[in-house]
Amino acid sequence: MSSLRRIKVVDSHTGGEPTRTVISGGPDLGSDSLVIRRDRFRQEFDHLRSAITNEPRGSDALVGALLCEPLDSTCATGVIFFNNVSYLGMCGHGTIGIVATLAYLDRIKPGKHRIETPVGVVEALLEPNGEVTVANVPSYRLASGVTVEVEGHGPVTGDVAWGGNWFFLVNDHGQDVSLENLESLTSFTWRIREALNRSGVTGEGGALIDHIELFVPSTIDGVDSKNFVLCPGKAYDRSPCGTGTSAKLACLFADGKIRDGEVWRQESLIGSIFEGTVRVSDNVVHPSIKGSAFITAETDLILDDKDPFCMGIRT
Ligand code: PYC
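Above: inputs. Below: predicted complex with pyrrole-2-carboxylate.
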């Protein structure tokens, strides 16, 4: 007899990037802060992260979202985001995905909803037409003009910025940012990540920089820029990346290229678009990201303890 565990999930995609929201059957992480609960997830239940996101049930691009009881009672929910290799501080496309999911489940109505994450509370405005605007955590540029020596390429210069995760943002790279060039974009940005590691370039407090972004001008009318975003587990973000666009807005503000109240339209590698807006108070950038998510499945994941790949294929 095998023992079956059922995990109830709702899948969605935001600009092509998938989110799997865990509704029930996930790990019991207790009721400490979300930072402590995320650490407990990593230390004691990492096999469930892998079971939910990795093949054969998931894919490298999938971001998981574990709904949790918030500590802050003004929040509609708490959430811990995770992916094929690790855990995220925040996730912009994922927040839009969980808001669409909660609306689909009839747990929330259009209006403003606060959501607790391990890196702070964000606020999501759900419009009656399903569009979601996420007021993200304050974002900032930590370092500008950082040069690293990239294997097989030479020096690459970029900025280190926080948008809820750590990013290295590169404007000057000479790459063709198109889906046809996916393999070399992945290889190039992975080598940038390795070069940052080798050179000891980190985020605040020695944090690993695990997202790399390349930018080119967009060819779509009214859209400011197109990006390629390498995620921590080597997949590329199909969406323009909410936290990555937030990091970009922080860099644009630091360079005097965007002002309070201005809008920045960011296109992804596959042509989906987020609308970013900057709000500045006391010289601190508060970015907002607007996009839409669509529900793609509502199902039970089944974990059969007799299945040799029950906990997913770890790469
Ligand atoms: O939208 O912030 C985001 C995100 C992070 C990783 C994948 N998407």
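The mean pLDDT is 98.
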